[in-house]
Amino acid sequence: MMTAPPQILTHYLLEVADRRGQHGYSHALSTVATALKLISAMVSRGSLILSPESFTNPGVTEELNEARRLKSTRIVLEQAATCGEIAAVSFSDESIIYQVTQGAPYLLSIDVMHHTITLAENQPIGIAFSITERKSGTETVTEADFLRAGTEQLSAGFALFGPVSVLILTTGEGVDGFTLDQSVGDYVLTSPSIAIPEDSDVLAVDLSHAQSWSPPLRRYVDERIRSSQAQGGRRCTMRWNNSAILGAFRVLMNGGLFMLPESDQGGLIPLLHTAQPLSMLIEQAGGQSTDGANRIATICPKSLTHRVPIVFGAPDDIQTIEAYSSGHDTSDEPEGNYPLFHNRTIYIRGD
After folding, report:
1. No. of H helices and E strands in the chain?
2. Helix 315-326 to helix 215-229 angle, to the nearest 10 degrees?
3. Cα–Cα distance between 102 and 86 in angstroms, integer?
């Protein structure tokens, strides 16, 4: 018996368009996928995208990061211009709106490699994006067109460039994972209907700035680690990489919880360009996403550069954190309630 060939992204998007009668929307998504393939090829070349004279430059890391960012931005804008369905593009950490096609129905928000220090260490890097339908009928797209709650996203996804290039995508009907097959020049469906595992005990968080977290988050992490040290308690396996996109990939594939709380070192990510698309993916896969107290999808950006803390993963854990937050009263909750973050370490059990 012959087995069916793997489904490529092109055919996948045609099926989505046929179900919804929105072929322009499918075309916009296909355009984003093409841009991501071109960016993947550019990233894989490493320092080769620079001139040979730059290889001995002590500041080559900064130069390379800036080159990648500029080339990625140009690739996205060039591809969007060929689509005809994308009215404007907004990039993370920029207040500029790039007008593309006047009167087109869709808006693209994308986080294109503004923080690429991990590439200098040959670690994976990701790009998040989302597509929304334009509401206003004005000729020029304005900031107000983009400042919408995450619940209004039509589609969201992220690409991860590592040993293999993957694309994780939702069109509002679950989450599917694709792997870029260079031999056919397209993404191939390799992980259909992704659902976040419920039984993972992985906790991805950087403990180095825990003293400046909010008390509810410190309480949750302290209880998780103390429970793992108690006989019969819940296990707690620590993981950390300072990338919400890589964290989302781990949670979608292996479960657990990713935490990037606000701290004295910042700990914030772009709401419109990163937090919203990741949260849509997490929710579509059966998880939840919060800023520590509120569902990310319900937060409306106050500006194009609005940044938020983010915690996402298994629903039970998110609900516990939000319950701690809603019941928190600083007037009757002394600092001493969280011994993990005071005169002890996570490696030495207290008396």
Report:
1. 9, 15
2. 130
3. 9
CA of 243: how far to CAs of 186, 209, 247, 312, in Å?
26, 16, 6, 13
E-only strand ranges, 162-219:
165-170, 175-181, 186-191, 202-204
Q: Which amino acid is at 98?
A: Y
Residue 75 in tokens? 């690739």
For residue 235, which phi and psi values (nearest 5 degrees)?
Answer: -65, 155
Specify the DSSP class assigned to residue 65: H
CA nearest 124: which of 23, 253, 316? 253
Place of tokens 């390799």: 190
Q: Residue 55: what pLDDT?
A: 56
Q: Looking at 221-230, 263-272, 290-299, 309-318, which range is the least confident one?
A: 263-272
Strands 106-111 and 86-91: parallel
Cβ atoms of 223 and 140 closer than 8 Å:
no
Residue 348: per-residue pLDDT: 40
Tokens 């993963």: give the residue. Answer: 313
Tokens of 305: 């550069």
Query: Long-range contacts of range 229-235, CB-CB < 8 Å, 24 or more positions apart?
Result: 229/349, 234/201, 235/201
Provide the sign of the torsion angle of the four alpha carbons 266, 269, 275, 278, taken in this order.
negative
